[in-house]
Amino acid sequence: MSSETQTPRRGAVAFIFVTVLLDMLAFGIIIPVLPKLVEQFQHGDTAAAARSYGLFGMAWAAMQFIFSPLLGAMSDRYGRRPVILLSCFGLGLDYLFMTIAPSLGWLFVGRVISGITSASFSMANAYIADVTPPDQRAGYYGMLGAAFGIGFVAGPALGGLLGHYDPRWPFALAGVLALANACYGLFVLPESLPRERRTPRFSWARANPVGALHLLRRSPQLQALAGVYFLFQFAHYVLPSTAILYASYRYGWNARELGLMMAATGVCSIIVQALLVKPVVARVGERATLLIGLLFASCGFAGYGLAGSGAQFMMMVPVFALAGFVGPGLQALMTRTVSGQEQGLLQGANASMMGIAGLMAPGFFTQLFAYAIADGWQAPGAPLLAAAGFTALAALIAWRAARPNAALLQPAA
């Protein structure tokens, strides 16, 4: 292992933390206003807006599926820095483009571009793998998760405040933040992948979803861990897909109560990622951390689905927050199974799997919710219980895949 990965470069890691924070802040800012802007273009027709917004989400996930492996392969060949900066500049310009989009069609184009250029989070994971030794990665991935959570909590609050005056203002602020971060990165972000550790040539055979996903079949261990990643991501989509509808239907919550629930979820997630991941990994290891996270995820989903009152639902928020152990533990284990020349491709493949989950899971969970509240079968918690089942299956797979004697779970060169 090169000396570059022995001691994390604090300035570079700090920039990556800020990049994820600002990108998630920018992403979160538009969450409360994008549906309203779509509704404006549909002349107040909420049903038509809902159909259009669903297509927006599918298009974004499809672009992630197609282009994430390309950007990952580019980062393995040309370095992480240009891809991260390209993503930041691309997102910034795209948000400004959506600020002035004159029609629904142009707004859709902007969302497609956003899906293409949204590589900063996956490239941040590859960057951390480059500059940290394997036994410290889970802790740093936890810090990235905390940045993700901070942005996701603060962004919607800020977006809702600005969107009260004009639904386009949050897009403008998101664009300014992304561009400012990109300009800052031009001066302070060093390259993490030295030339001698890059792939010798760019290969289109690897830089596509099929080629990237083929990487995940390299060994039984990596294939199984990829299955865990997909199942967890698929299950997690139950929350953005149905949580608001579920809480409104079952508990009669209004916008204020829903906002408080989202804020509490974000705060608990930040606490877990920022304060608990690193010491827990140091004490019990990456495998146990992953299994603990999946156990609490399954219990949390089940608790949400069975909660008979809003108070019981809120009691499960800190329980589910411990699912924050999953990402850092799983990412650390997966990065051990590939070489330093393939970290970008690995993250691109993971992003592609997230894109597949994003295409499939929302439709599955929303249709299950609709069926579960139909006449004759009042079981609104069914989607959340299904998610609990998916994460329990993931835990069983992880228990076998991440066994301590698994030969490939060793630091990659």
TrEMBL record:
It is found in: Membrane. GO terms for molecular function: transmembrane transporter activity. Its main location: membrane. Gene3D superfamilies: MFS general substrate transporter like domains (1.20.1250.20). It is a multi-pass membrane protein. Pfam families: MFS_1 (PF07690). The chain crosses the membrane at residues 12-33, 53-71, 83-102, 108-128, 140-163, 169-189, 224-246, 258-276, 288-307, 313-333, 354-374, 380-399. Keywords: Membrane, Transmembrane, Transmembrane helix, Transport. CDD domains: MFS_TetA. It comes from the Bacteria. Belongs to the major facilitator superfamily. TCR/Tet family. Resistance to tetracycline by an active tetracycline efflux. This is an energy-dependent process that decreases the accumulation of the antibiotic in whole cells. This protein functions as a metal-tetracycline/H(+) antiporter. This is MFS transporter, DHA1 family, tetracycline resistance protein.
